Amino acid sequence: MITPKTASSLFRTGNLDRAMKAAEVGMERTSPNTDEYQQFLFVKAECLRTKGQVRQALELIGESINESGLSPETCALWHMHRGYFLGMRNAYVESKQEFDKAEDIASNQSLSHISLDILLRRAMILFFAEELVASQDAYRKALQVAEVHGDLFSQALALAGTGKNLMIRKNYREAVGWYEKALVAAKESRATLLAAAMQSELGWCFYNMEHDDKALELFRASEAAFLAAGALTNYQISLGNIGNIFVRRGDYPAAVSYFQRALELAKKNEDRISMAKWLNNLSDVFFRMGNPVLAGEYQRQLMLVKVALQRERARVRQAEN
Q1: Burial of 254: CB neighbours in 10 Å, binned 0-12, 13-18, 19+
Q2: Residue 212 domain boundaries
Q3: 251 and 273 part of one domain
Q4: DSSP class per residue in 106-154
């Protein structure tokens, strides 16, 4: 018998297609506007997000929910998922509003396990919005709660988030320690894709510490895991990271190939943060190759993406003042 727990377990272990199928079958066999139906829907939405289809995930969740007949836990999770997907599409003000609603429900109903999930997801969106102090504080708080609960998966996410905030500040050596702990926790909780993400993040640290062979080994491992699972959101990041290795080696045509593949996936996924990275890298490589025309075109596209991102981040700051 297919249950939401079965579908969720398949998702966590990286079986995205099987998880989505299980969720769809569960939705067909369950009456709408019930807790069980919504739980299946959440799994399907998470599969879509991981496959790079964040807009479709947001559309599946919908713009509103009929809370009549649903448990407070389900209602809190609905707002959490919607807030997360909005944040991934850089709608940071709307994302914050949904997270606030989710936290209010969880707090009022003493849903401590849901509060931890909300905190971890909000921490990631704060990172994307460049609210780095708030993000780091949220991750450290989440780690303390996860350790008390003995929740290895949540510990892995919190450890990784702490590492990410160190990495963005270029504290690569310190970040490695956090990522290595996160990798161990991810493997122990059988979170296949999270473990692959930790390999990718460790690769980026080693790349910046100029340990290119180790970095490439980690990038290749994560690339294979993401491709096998169809996790295109993270797959394009691995492609771009491998491209950086080829730039350093002076193999510019190979680097261009990887950056262009990463850019196409980022565009398809409507991932503006990644688009900005790969456009910047392509502009740099074509400049090195002596092609200022193409370098300038990629720079022009980069400026358009940056303006859109800066506009959304400015809205967050205005809303807080």
Answers
A1: middle
A2: 131-221
A3: yes
A4: HHHTT-HHHHHHHHHHHHHHHHHTT-HHHHHHHHHHHHHHHHHHT-HHH
The closest of 287, 298, 193 to 238, measured between CA atoms, is 193
Tell me the C-alpha distance between 185 and 44, whole Å: 25
Distance CA 273, CA 148 (A): 34
Q: What three-state secondary structure class fits 291?
A: coil
Give me the pLDDT at residue 29, please: 95
Q: Are residues 279 and 245 in the same domain?
A: yes
> Please, are residues 130 and 165 in contact by the beta-carbon 8 Å criterion?
no
pTM of the predicted model as reported, rounded to 2 decimal places: 0.90
Number of domains into which the chain is organized = 2
- Residue 321 domain flag: yes
- In angstroms, the CA 235 to CA 269 distance is 11
**Cα angle: 210, vertex 259, 85; to 5 degrees:** 100
CATH code of 304's domain? 1.25.40.10
Q: Per the domain annotation, does 241 fall within a domain?
A: yes
Q: What is the pLDDT of residues 34-59, one digit of tens each?
A: 999 999 999 999 999 999 999 999 99
Residue 177 DSSP SS3 = helix
